[in-house]
Amino acid sequence: GTLIINISVQFGMVGWGLAHGMRLTRMQGAGLGLAFAGLLALLSPGLTAPPLTSALLMVISGLAWGGYSICGRGASSASLGNFFRCAIAGLITACAALLLESPAHPAAWACALAAGAVASAPGYVLWYVIVPRYSLTGSSVIQLSVPLITAVLAVLLLDEPITLRLALCSVPILGGICLALTSKQEKQARP
């Protein structure tokens, strides 16, 4: 799912930019490709073909994330309000779900709240602070660092081991991001 979402965000953001006159430099294209190859290598040992319906839902989610990122380029402060409204809608939905099925264990509620409020929300707020500072290409390639950041946080917070694969895959991911962001066109695109 992570790979499908990341690909969809990339195609959505870069595709929209290309359709509206953006042109990738060779360095940006090489950086995108290198970072994506590193991400593919990092995630490949666990890759299995998901059911078609699930894969299509992930593609739609990734395209929506890319679209929201494009729309949010000029309105990063609006994201906080959007998260607040989504939290209210989520609580209403959770209460309705309680009426339909047996109640979830309190630990499940705690995990869901921690995943949304503690882990996801700050990440999205940071994302929408970063997005306006870079071109569409820069923003989309930075997004490829999310699985790597997640893996590093798992090492730091959950005592996960640093594996050789994680160390080796970090090089092309970070190198590709740097290559794309140091492109002459990217430097000119920054405000």
What does this structure look like?
This protein is an all-alpha fold and 191 residues long. The chain has nine helices and no strands. Helix 1 packs antiparallel against helix 6, helix 2 (26-43) runs antiparallel to helix 8 (164-181) and helix 6 packs antiparallel against helix 8 (164-181). It is globular and about 55 Å long. The mean pLDDT is 78.
The biggest sheet amounts to:
none
Give the amount of beta strand, in percent. under 5%
N- to C-terminal distance: 34 Å
Inertia-based shape = globular
Q: Averaged pLDDT, please?
A: 78
The strand count comes to 0
Q: Kindly provide the radius of gyration, computed on alpha-carbon positions and rounded to a whole number of angstroms.
A: 18 Å
Number of helices: 9
H-E string: HHHHHHHHH
Low-confidence stretches: none
Classify the helix fraction into a percent range: over 70%
Structural class: mainly alpha
